[in-house]
Amino acid sequence: QVRLVESGGGLVQAGDSLRLSCAASGRTFSGYNMGWFRQAPGKERDFVSAISWSGRRTNYAESVKGRFTIDRDNAKNTVYLQMNSLKPEDTAVYYCAADSIRNRVALITSRAAYADWGQGTQVTVSS
Question: What CA–CA distance (Å, rounded) separates 55 from 72?
Answer without folding.
Answer: 6
